[in-house]
Amino acid sequence: MDPIVELKNITFKYQPEDSRPAIDHVSLEIYPGEWIAIIGHNGSGKSTLAKTINGLLLPNEGEVRVAGQILSEETVWGIRKAVGMVFQNPDNQFVGATVEDDVAFGMENQGVPREDMVTRVKDALEQVRMSDFATREPARLSGGQKQRVAIAGVVALRPDLIILDEATSMLDPEGRFEVIEAIKKIKEESQLTVISITHDIDEAANANRLFVMKQGQLVKKGTPEEIFSEGPKLIELGLDLPFPEKLKQVLKERGLSVPDSYLSEEGMVEWLWTSVLNK
Amino acid sequence: MMNKLIFGRYIPGDSFIHKLDPRTKLLGSFYFIGIIFLANNWQSYLFLAAFTLVAIALSKISFTFFWKGVRPLLWLILFTVALQMFFTSGGIVYWQWGILQLTEFGVRNGIFIFCRFVLIIFMSTLLTLSTPPLELSDALEYVLRPLKAVKFPVHEISLMLSIALRFVPTLMDETEKIMNAQRARGVDFGEGNLIQKMQAIVPLLIPLFVSSFNRAEDLATAMEARGYQGGEGRTKYRILHWQRRDTAVVVVFALLTVILIGLKS
Predict the structure, then answer these.
(1) Structural domain span for residue B58
(2) Does the structure show a pLDDT above 60 at B208?
(3) Phi/psi at A217 (5° precision)
(4) Are residues B187 and B94 in the same domain?
(5) Are residues B247 and B123 located together in one domain of the fold?
(6) Which CATH number fits domain A5-241: 3.40.630.30, 3.40.710.10, 3.30.980.40, 3.40.50.300?
């Protein structure tokens, strides 16, 4: 299977005189249907990387290939059709004056006929469970609701790839859960590829693969199990540990022998009750 | 803060006036302001007042809102009326002191000016109260469309207008947040003399400006990511429907004009 996103040795500097590039020789492939989480501390180049994927930034060196097209000035609008992006601040990316206008905005840009738009707006709002709010203004919505509208706006464009650029970082735990659940559901229904840039380690634990960034470089790639089994070393990379891993650390300090491999929350529960019964 | 501003507020409803096409309402209120200058005697003003009251009644919006629209302008109106009353000469002189005189014509002119002001404010308040801001900007875009011929950037202007309208409540919230945050740090708003008051505004204004710049950048990025390339080749989600009731309103306005010309002395 051909990768949907392929970065070959990308380097990007915001200013030519910058001593350290924001992205430093990064290469990666992402395959259709994958859920990728890109993690790393602040200033590690995660968001810059996301912006190079849909051509908001053109790299100084290297080649970006998205959905079979090589990124250049000519192909950038075609690539943006294939890539939907949801940003961090729910207020600042809400273009429309009402929910339905905002969902329609991207389609208006692509010149979708009006009859099509009406049905697609309706479907997209249903997918994120916001149909009852179609005529509401953004000022009367919660943060999580605004992000769900932003997702609906992206989904209505039927992209192959959705990039969530810290889309849940300004939400409360409830809003975060709602948004992630909405994306999960849509991903299952339409075979999307998702790239999620996140600080939320529990969100990252749900991904198929993790990419760890540090100072503009891609320092680690792997499944959550592989990455999280590094344990305390993650803290040196400026990352937090997932909850089961933290629990393991505390149990270890109390002298219990815990398995070395990474356990998900369910795995942890399994291990806990079996080990108690075995005693 | 929002409660004080009656201007530009929208009262949701589904009356006859609410359901009218925004273009009808926009052009109708402009036209009304134009033909109000046709009236020049008691009968015509009485007739216009009756027309306005019927329009207000049709909107089913409580009259207090209209009164609130007039109230902030009351001093301006009374000042103009007073000027008219005391400086117009002609007819029977009721009272005189130096150059000030109260005459028959003066009183009449004063009352007419008062009616004119109040009726204009009532009509424009009716427009903003019964039309959502977004529909108003749609109507404006439509009305401005002929200006495309002279290279006027109609799409850009209407996009700016609708984004501006959409950010008004967001920025209001933010202003309040910054004000409270600065108050918590000891800034006194609205205290002291004029210079002190102006100085107190600075810690509110600068963060508001900076955050608006950041917002603008975020919004531009988000718009670009969603494929916005300018007005060319765009379709529109929102369309305006001209209905039979709009034609009826046009007929009513035509009749109104004829009657006013007939009543003119």
Answers:
(1) 1-131+241-265
(2) yes
(3) -110, 150
(4) no
(5) yes
(6) 3.40.50.300
Q: What is the pLDDT of residue A279?
A: 63
Q: Using the beta-carbon criterion (under 8 Å), do A97 and B166 form an inter-chain contact?
A: yes
User: What secondary structure does DSSP assign to B181-211, as a single string?
Assistant: HHHHTT--TT-SSHHHHHHHHHHHHHHHHHH
Kindly give, in sequence order, each residue whose CB lies less than 8 Å from that of residue B87, ignoring residues fewer than 6 positions away: B99, B100, B106
Do residues B229 and B136 share a domain?
A: yes
For chain B, the domain total comes to: 2
How far is A52 from A14, CA to CA, in rounded Å?
Answer: 12
| Residue B183 forms contact with A (CB below 8 Å) | no
Which residues 6+ apart lie within 8 Å of A58 measured at CB? A52, A71, A72, A73
Task: For tokens 């009726």, name the residue.
Answer: B119
Count of other CB atoms within 10 angstroms of residue A73: 8
B68 and B103 in a single domain? The answer is yes
Question: Which site among A53, A107, A108, A140 would you substitute to test the B interface, given the most B Cβ atoms closer than 10 Å to its Cβ?
Answer: A108
CA A108, A91, B140: angle at the middle one, nearest 5? 50
- Asked whether the beta carbons of residue B170 and residue A91 sit closer than 8 angstroms, the reply is yes
Q: Are residues B117 and B246 in the same domain?
A: yes
Selected residue of B166, B175, B240 to mutate for chain A interface (largest A Cβ count, 10 A): B166
Question: Which of B223, B232, B235, B240 to probe by mutation at the A interface, max A CB count within 10 Å?
Answer: B235
Chain mean pLDDT for chain A: 87
Residues of chain A with CATH 3.40.50.300: 5-241
Span A145-160, pLDDT tens digits: 999 999 999 999 989 9
- Set of chain A residues whose Cβ sits within 8 Å of the Cβ of B162: 97
Out of A98, A113, A139, name the one closest to residue B235 (CB). A113
Question: Span B79-96, mean pLDDT?
Answer: 80
* CA nearest to A107 within chain B: B235
Tens digit of each residue's pLDDT (9 = 90 or more) over A181-225: 888 888 888 889 999 998 887 788 888 999 998 888 898 899 888
pTM: 0.80
Confidence tier at B188 by pLDDT (50, 70, 90): confident
Judging contacts by C-beta atoms under 8 Å, the chain B residues touching residue A87 are 218, 221-222, 225
CB contact under 8 A, B237 and A104: yes
Residues B136 and B184 in one domain: yes
Q: Which residue of B has its CA nearest to A78?
A: B227
> For A108, which of B221, B224, B234 is closest by C-beta distance?
B234
Give the ipTM. Answer: 0.84
Give the confidence band of B2 by pLDDT, cuts at 50, 70, 90.
Answer: very low
Does B90 have pLDDT greater than 80? no
Write out the two tokens for A11. Answer: 């380097």
Q: Are residues B113 and B2 in the same domain?
A: yes
Same domain, B99 and B215: no
